[in-house]
């Protein structure tokens, strides 16, 4: 899975890892701001690594959690979904609007291959000082450069360079910053 090769999602080890993530996110999603110590403790158990001053508004959903690497000062607004079947690296000072979806997972395009069951996943890298607007979807294998803004509702299917504003479906360069 992490080697960008086909994998079987119902493998017992992968199922156990997803069950662990579901348990942690379910507990996390039940917390309130007043439960900040409990929230922080739960959040420390979930990602592969996490910098300081990370804030994730519940509800939050992910597949494994352990494949998510967060820098310092990362913020996720409500209702974000990270399908971390491969690694998701997020740089310092990066913020996400509500309902952002980040998908490392994907499936074969040909139906005959797809129905055999193996799935695929490719890593996603989001740089430092990035803003991703609400409702954006970031697809497998994408890199978003430092100090970039991706507009609300964008469908990010290709790499976005540093220091730009990009938006749309599909997401495209609007202007240099």
List the helices and strands and how they pair.
Blueprint: H1 12-29, H2 36-45, E1 49-50, E2 55-56, E3 60-62, E4 68-70, E5 75-76, E6 80-83, E7 88-90, E8 95-96, E9 101-103, E10 105-106, H3 111-114, E11 120-121, E12 124-126, E13 131-132, E14 137-138, E15 143-144, E16 149-150, E17 155-156, E18 164-167, E19 172-176
Parallel strand pairs: 1-4, 2-5, 3-6, 4-7, 5-8, 6-9, 7-12, 8-13, 9-14, 12-15, 13-16, 14-17, 16-18
Antiparallel strand pairs: 10-11, 18-19
Number of domains: 1
Architecture (CATH level 2) name: 3 Solenoid
C-alpha end-to-end distance: 36 Å
Percent of residues in helices? 10-25%
**Which CATH top level class fits?**
Mainly Beta
Query: Tally of extended strands?
Result: 19
| CA-based shape | globular
- Output mean pLDDT: 96
Order of helices and strands: HHEEEEEEEEEEHEEEEEEEEE
């Amino acid at each position: 899975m992490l080697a960008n090769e086909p994998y079987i999602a119902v493998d017992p080890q992968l199922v156990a890892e997803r069950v662990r993530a579901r348990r942690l996110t379910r507990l996390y999603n039940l917390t309130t701001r007043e439960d900040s110590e409990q929230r922080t403790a739960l959040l420390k158990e979930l990602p592969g690594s996490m910098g300081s001053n990370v804030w994730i508004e519940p509800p939050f959903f992910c597949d494994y959690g352990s494949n998510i690497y967060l820098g310092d000062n990362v913020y996720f607004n409500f209702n974000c979904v990270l399908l971390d079947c491969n690694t998701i690296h997020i740089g310092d000072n990066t913020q996400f609007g509500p309902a952002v979806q980040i998908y490392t997972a994907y499936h074969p395009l040909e139906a005959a291959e797809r129905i055999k069951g193996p799935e695929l996943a490719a890593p996603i890298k989001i740089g430092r000082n990035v803003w991703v607007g609400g409702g954006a979807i970031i697809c497998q294998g994408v890199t978003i450069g430092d100090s970039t803004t991706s507009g609300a509702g964008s469908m990010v299917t290709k790499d976005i360079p540093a220091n730009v504003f990009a938006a749309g479906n599909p997401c495209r360069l609007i202007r240099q910053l």
